Amino acid sequence: PDWSDACPTGVPRIDELWECGVYPGDLAIIAADTNVGKSMCLCYLAASAYKANKRVLYFTFELTPTQVAERILTALFQDKKQNLDPDTVADRLMDFRRQHHITTGSLVIDNGEGIRTVAELKNRLMEENIDLVLLDSADDLNPRRNYSKMHEAFKEIYTDIRLDICQGLGIPCWTSVQMNRDAIEKARTSLKHIADAIAKAQRAHLVLGMSQTVDEREHYLGPFVKLVVLKDTQHGSRGKWERYRTMFGRGADGWPGFEYWPGTGELD
């Protein structure tokens, strides 16, 4: 594939590092703790790919299709949710398509009804002609058989997504993952929780981490979030972090988006 096949993230410095974004065959993961903004980031990725004239299919297993649509539209228009007038939003979207020369790009939001395994997901995707699939979240899919340990189930699910969806169908895939859900709920971290995270990350080609301290979340200029390239098998790049001010951390006045804030460095 060449650069025209890439689905951009919309974050310029990351797209530069990844040669325009994710490519056919890539399994990419957004990893973060609770309430950092994984779903918001997925909506921003969907909007960015759509603006690049890509055909996008978004599966939401957690939020409603209406919630996802509102977030994607506010990302496209860079406007507040309360300014989305149901009577004019369709015309507004058509004007947006003309202004940005979107001719073949499309975006479908699916609530994932009837899709509980990777095999069912593959059958659904074989019926579509798309450039990018987003899963929110692959953690909600079931393995082909029962496992006594959770990380073994995740290992199977993410292996099947990589081999059957990304590489088998040639469709790049983004998914959000809760890397330490059990640890948060039980207020402790153990080797079991680490193993669950590793099982997912090992199968991915690209892992984009999101992290946020209390000070960054409550900063008067923020909220801020750090975007970290945790894994990049295509280029072998070392981990890089950059601090961004999030547009979506401002309640009703925000929308999915990132504004670069000076501060970058290497991770040992």
How many DSSP-defined strands? 9
The profile of the biggest β sheet is: 9 strands, mixed
Strand order of the biggest β-sheet: 3-2-4-5-1-6-7-8-9
Number of helices: 9
Low-pLDDT parts are 181-189
Residues in helix, %: 25-40%
Mean pLDDT: 86
Going by helix content, strand content and strand pairing, the class is alpha/beta
Radius of gyration, taken over Cα atoms and rounded to an integer in Å: 18 Å
How would you describe the shape? globular
Distance between the termini: 32 Å
How big a fraction of the residues is strand?
A: 15-25%
**N-to-C series of helices and strands:** HEHEHHEHEHEHHEHEEE
Task: Report on the architecture of this protein.
The chain has nine helices and nine strands. α2 (38-51) crosses α3 (65-77), α5 (118-125) packs parallel to α6 (150-167) and α6 (150-167) packs parallel to α8. Residues 181-189 have low confidence and may be disordered. β4, α6 and β5 (173-178) form a beta-alpha-beta unit. It is α/β, with parallel strands linked by helices and 268 residues long. The chain is globular. Strands 3-2-4-5-1-6-7-8-9 form a nine-stranded mixed β-sheet, sandwiched between helices.
